[in-house]
Amino acid sequence: MLGGTFDPVHLGHLRSAVELHEALALDAVHMIPASMPPLRGEPHVSPAERLALLRLGIGDTPGLVADPRELRRDGPSFSADTLATLREEFGGQARLVMALGHDAFRRLADWHQPERLFELAHLVVIDRPDFEAPLPSALVALIDGREVDAAETLMERPAGGLLRLALPSRMAISATEVRHRLAEGRSVRYLLPEAVEARILAHGFYSGS
Ligand code: ATP
């Protein structure tokens, strides 16, 4: 599972998903847009539209799935609840992985039921340029004893471990930067898949007008 606001999806998300799929030999990477992210402001574009952009961005990429399961639930999107639905679907012995960038990981201790995340899945933290700050002490306590240093070790069990991964193509792309550029009428070429850029421009999303 790679959850996010995807407001909008960009090549940092998509390339990370492809490289995760490869590095961990996953069956599939479910990219799951949050309808209502609990720890940030209202997204700029509706959940259905963020999902449509995600689908366009994924296109026919092998192994990547645009998964609408959080959009079917009312209220805030808690990752623990989402993982519980995946666990139910794939069974107790499936190896489940929740992947997130280092910036999101730093705030993990503030999430809803953070210990439950580790009961349901492994956590894989993706290195992200510009987000290298040290971990807060509550997080250090939460991950104590969980870290492993190889994907093979992680995959020996269905859940409970932590792995930090430096994927080959670390990309300093953020949705915030993409939105700023669009609001100022500047180019976003090669930051997003072309089909995503075309739809955003055709609809005037994030244009600031
Ligand atoms: P914003 O700038 O609006 O906060 P974002 O670019 O961080 O957005 P999100 O949708 O919040 O995108 O991110 C979803 C997940 O993808 C998070 O775990 C985030 O850390 C991760 N992520 C986002 N951009 C990258 C990137 N360039 N490289 C690696 N991981 C990323």
Brief rundown of the structure:
It is built from nine helices and six strands. It is an alpha/beta fold and 209 residues long. It binds adenosine-5'-triphosphate.
How many independent structural domains?
1
CA distance, first residue to last residue: 34 Å
Q: So how many helices? A: 9
Please tell me the overall pLDDT.
93
Oligomeric state of the chains present here = single chain
Residue windows where pLDDT falls under 50 for at least 5 positions:
none
CATH class: Alpha Beta
How many strands in all? 6
The CATH architecture can be named as 3-Layer(aba) Sandwich
Strand coverage percent: 5-15%
Lateral arrangement of strands in the main beta sheet:
1-2-3
Order of helices and strands: EHEHEHEHHEHHEHH
Biggest beta sheet attributes: 3 strands, parallel
Overall geometric form: globular
- The radius of gyration is 17 Å
Bound molecules: adenosine-5'-triphosphate
Summing up helix and strand content along with how strands pair, one would put the structural category as: alpha/beta
The CATH superfamily turns out to be HUPs
According to CATH, what is the topology? Rossmann fold
List the SSEs and their pairings.
Elements: E1 2-4, H1 11-23, E2 29-33, H2 47-58, E3 64-66, H3 79-90, E4 97-101, H4 102-106, H5 114-120, E5 122-126, H6 137-142, H7 151-154, E6 162-165, H8 175-183, H9 194-203
Parallel strand pairs: 1-2, 2-3, 4-5, 5-6
The protein binds adenosine-5'-triphosphate.
